[in-house]
Each structure stands twice: as C-alpha cells, then as structure tokens.
Amino acid sequence: YGVGFARKRGLRPRRLPEKLEADKALFADLQEAKGRMPEEIGTIYKETEELRLEVGELNIKPLRNLIKNPSFGEVFIKGAALLVSLPLFIVSCIAGIPIHFAPRIMTRKVKDRMLHSGIDLAFTILLSAPAIYLIMFALVWIFTWWLPAMVTIVALPLLALFYFCYTRWTGRWFGKMRFRSMKRSHKLDNVLKLYDNITGALDGILGKA
User: Fold this and answer.
1) SS3 assignment, position 18
2) pLDDT tens digit string along 12-57?
3) What pTM value is reported for the model?
4) Cα separation of 165 and 97, whole Å?
5) What gap in Å lies between CA 120 and CA 99, rounded to an integer?
6) What is the pLDDT, as a whole number, of residue 83?
7) Measured between alpha carbons, how far is 176 from 169 in angstroms, rounded to an integer?
8) Residues 87-115: what's their mean pLDDT?
9) Of 59, 79, 85, 39, which is closest to residue 187 (Cα–Cα)?
10) Which string of DSSP letters, residue by residue, matches 33-82?
11) Residues 85, 166: contact at Cβ < 8 Å?
12) Contact in structure between 86 and 79 (CB atoms under 8 Å)
C-alpha cells in the first residue's frame, strides 16, 4: 500500500530517501486518523497483523503478487524467456557460483543474520570477486594467450551479473506459479479478502484526512 501512497504523492518508492519520506507521511496520516477514528484504525491494525501472519504461514513471495495478480500469459512468457536464456545461465555459473558462496565463509561465523547482507556485499566487492577474476584471468593467460584472457576479465563481471539476475528472476517466476496454484485451490481466499478490506478501508479513511 505504501508504494501506491508514495506514487500518489509524486514520490519514487524505489529511491530510499523518497520511500522514507512517503512512509513518514503515511505514518503521520494514520496517526492523525487514529485520533478521529480509533475503532476503524484499530480494525485495520488487527487485520494487518492477521494478514502478516497468514502471508508468513503461506510463504507468499513476492508480496507484489497480492497487488498484481500474475496472469497465465505473464507466467508463460517469462517462463519461456527463462528457458531460452538457460544455456547462458549455465555458462554464467562459472563466474557466479564462486562469488555467491565465497562470502559464506565469513557470514557463517556471524550469528546476527541482520549483518549478513552487508558482510556479503563487502566481502564480494573487496575480496572474493577481485581474487576470483584475477585467478581466472591468470589461468586463461597461462594456458591460452593474452587476448582470450582480456576477453575473460571483461566477460566475467557481466556473467556474474547475469547469474544473480537470473536466479532472482527464477525465484520470482516460481513465486508467481505458486501464487496462481494457491489461488486456484482457494488457499488465498482469506488473504485476498483481508488485503482488499485493508486497502479499501485505508483509501476511505486517508481520503477523508
């Protein structure tokens, strides 16, 4: 809901400063509305908590599927695109897998999972990626020639980027497939009803603010 709220105010929710500004404005509007309509806001908070628990129990990912119900055509086209680009993904594993798993040497020793993403990023940028690229560059140069080695050092970062993008696209695609499957089996009936109730109530209350 916050994404739509931000866009209505002319803000771009993908940019962190503007997202924080929108979240702050939304919270202020809710606090103001709570003073005027405590029962209505209380119901929204209660249904939001119920929705959060059900979404967690059903493991619905990504959450944007609740907003934009994925169609069969969308799932089919994206699945076909993933299948066509699978050979390139297999090649990209050469660059992507070592970089993906190398930071776990450090993060497995850190108990606070909130720090894992930051450690992963720092370890990848400062150590694992440069080391792996240089090793591959040296091996190609030793066993072939300098020109293939130069091509390798340019291609490896691009292949690693494609590897990470492909794994993310694949995860989202399976999430859409699972969402459609659960919807057909009526497992999402209560989740969708709660979502519609919450967004409808917020639109009505904030529209009066």
Assistant:
1) helix
2) 877 878 788 888 888 888 888 888 888 888 888 898 898 888 888 8
3) 0.68
4) 13
5) 10
6) 96
7) 11
8) 74
9) 59
10) HHHH-HHHHHHHHHHHHHHHHHHHHHT--STHHHHSPPPHHHHHHHHHHH
11) yes
12) no
Residue 120 in tokens: 């992963």
Nearest 5 degrees, angle CA 168-CA 170-CA 176?
105
| CA–CA gap between residue 198 and residue 118 (Å, rounded) | 34
Q: Please give the Cα distance from 193 to 157 (Å, whole number).
A: 45
- Written as six digits, the tokens of 138 are 């040296």
Q: Could you read off the pLDDT of 140-172 as tens digits, one per residue? A: 888 888 888 888 888 888 888 899 999 999 998
Q: Two tokens at 204? A: 């009505």
Question: Residue 209: which pLDDT band, with cuts at 50, 70 and 90?
Answer: very low
Mention every residue, 6+ apart, whose C-beta is less than 8 A from residue 60.
66, 175, 179, 182, 188, 191
Tokens of 188: 């999402």
